[in-house]
Design brief:
Structural class: alpha+beta
Helix content: 25-40%
Shape: elongated
Strand order of the largest sheet: 1-2
Order of helices and strands: EHEHHHH
Number of domains: 2
Radius of gyration: 18 Å
Distance between the termini: 43 Å
Number of strands: 2
Length: 121
């Protein structure tokens, strides 16, 4: 189920999971039964920051507020207890320019309006 399209089922779920989708904090809170469990995996604003800042002068992430401390704060404000949180910033290796172009094209939310001509020198 997509978090942004959550059904309006007050106190209807024991467990809600989310992976790489926007967080509707009020909807999550409303749909939980007492003692429910929310499990999420998010990609934050600083994902691939060094790559983007290398390619784009004055790079600003699309959603700069989407960092773990802010997400945790919003959940705690709504009464959630954080059982575990972690950040991971893997290195990405591209062995040819075609692999990079493919990557940039499929994650359009991180490379808006990407084109080879735009970055051609």
């Amino acid at each position: 189920m997509l978090i942004k399209n959550m059904p309006d089922v007050p106190n209807g779920f024991d467990v809600i999971t989310n992976s790489h989708d926007g967080l509707n904090f009020d909807g999550i809170t409303r749909c939980f039964k007492n003692g429910g469990l929310f499990i999420t995996e998010q990609v934050g604003a600083t994902n691939n920051y060094s790559l983007f800042s290398f390619l784009t002068d004055n790079y600003i992430p699309a959603h700069p507020e989407n960092v773990m401390v802010n997400v945790i704060s919003k959940l705690v404000e709504r009464g959630f207890q954080i059982l575990k949180s972690n950040s991971f910033y893997p290195k990405i290796w591209f062995y040819d320019v075609g692999a990079f172009v493919y990557y940039a094209k499929i994650i359009s939310w991180e490379f808006p309006d990407f084109s080879v001509l735009k970055y051609q020198s």
